[in-house]
TrEMBL record:
Name this polypeptide is given: NADP-dependent oxidoreductase domain-containing protein
Active-site feature positions: Y53 (proton donor)
InterPro entries from the UniProt entry: AKR, NAD(P)_OxRdtase_dom_sf, NADP_OxRdtase_dom
Positions of substrate binding: H111
Pfam family, one: Aldo_ket_red
Domain NADP-dependent oxidoreductase: 15-263
MF-aspect GO terms: oxidoreductase activity
Feature type site, description Lowers pKa of active site Tyr: K78
Xref: Gene3D superfamilies: NADP-dependent oxidoreductase domain
Length: 276
């Protein structure tokens, strides 16, 4: 498994697993647990969840999937912006730990920026880290100006910015990704297959057929090409997980990259960061 090095020197898998919309439907639970466990067996041991997902149901599902193998997992969860204060963050974290059935979160993220000053969130994150409740902290959906402010208010130890990035959302290539790369701050690409919409793209499907791959694999190979990038596709079945895991083995030719640039042109100017 390709690895990405965090600012602390620790390595995590470049291909992880997302869990939004999982754990919400009893009828799908067995398949979802099998999907997550299959991913773990394939080395996709970084699992992303959030207190928001299913109002805690996703964290509970993840807790069940990793029971008995916690030490091999790199667990990522996120707090609502309104919980990112000095008083509320420890309480939100304690609730997440309870649902996840563990004593620590490996990477705890601010889900998006809200009304709490970034300096206060940094302080609250660092306090949780000192206590051992979390091992690293980071942010999500922060654009370049917010990231610059974060670093100015003492957030240099931010471990990642988790952002919307895929073939149809190439805006961050213009300025945010180079800024993160320069600081050796890993980026986490969420919705790497655009929540499934990319898989219905005719041009992508045609290229995939020509390469003997699937559209999902090409879309994942595209984001995973970047150094320091972690992709977290969500898949609700072991078959989809297995297909996605193969993306790391796909070797695209220069003409394939050129074709992708033709179908999904790179940005030519700065634009606000999209979020889902
Ligand atoms: P994704 O781009 O990962 O797409 C998920 C969808 O694609 C699902 O419907 C899934 O279907 C389908 N899919 C995945 N792999 C395949 C495949 N090989 N073949 C066919 N269909 C496939 O979207 P998400 O929005 O879920 O993003 C991934 C993760 O990123 C989230 O789950 C969450 O953890 C995180 N996220 C973070 C956000 C933030 O604000 N920080 C916002 C959005 C997402 P099926 O379930 O049937 O496999």
């Amino acid at each position: 498994m390709k690895q990405v090095v965090l600012p602390t020197g620790e390595s995590v898998p470049a291909l992880g697993q997302g869990t939004w919309m999982m754990g919400e439907d009893r009828a799908r639970r067995t398949d979802e647990l099998a999907a997550l466990r299959h991913g773990i067996e394939r080395g996709m041991t970084l699992i992303d969840t959030a207190e928001m997902y299913g109002d805690g149901a996703s964290e509970e599902l993840v807790g069940e999937a990793i029971a008995g193998r916690r030490d091999s997992i790199f667990l990522v969860s996120k707090a609502y912006p309104q919980n990112a204060s000095r008083q509320r963050l420890p309480l939100a974290c304690a609730r997440s730990l309870q649902r996840l059935g563990t004593d620590r979160i490996d990477l705890y993220l601010l889900h998006w920026r809200g009304g709490v000053p970034l300096a206060e969130t940094v302080e609250a994150m660092e306090a949780l880290r000192a206590e051992g409740k979390i091992r690293h902290w980071g942010v999500s959906n922060l654009d370049l100006d917010d990231m610059q402010e974060l670093v100015e208010v003492g957030g240099e130890s931010c471990a990642t910015d988790q952002i919307l990035y895929n073939l149809t959302r190439r805006g961050p290539e213009f300025d945010l990704l180079p800024w993160l790369e320069e600081r050796k701050m890993p980026v986490m690409a969420y919705s790497p297959v655009e929540q499934g919409r990319l898989l219905r793209h005719q041009g992508l499907a045609a290229l995939a057929a020509e390469r003997g791959a699937t559209a999902a694999q090409i879309a994942l190979a595209f984001v995973l090409r970047r150094e320091g990038l972690i992709a977290i596709p969500k898949a609700g079945s072991a078959a989809h997980v297995a297909e996605n895991a193969e993306a790391l083995r796909l070797e695209l030719r220069p003409e394939d990259w050129a074709e992708l640039d033709r179908i999904f042109p790179p940005p030519t100017r700065s634009a606000p960061l999209d979020m889902l």
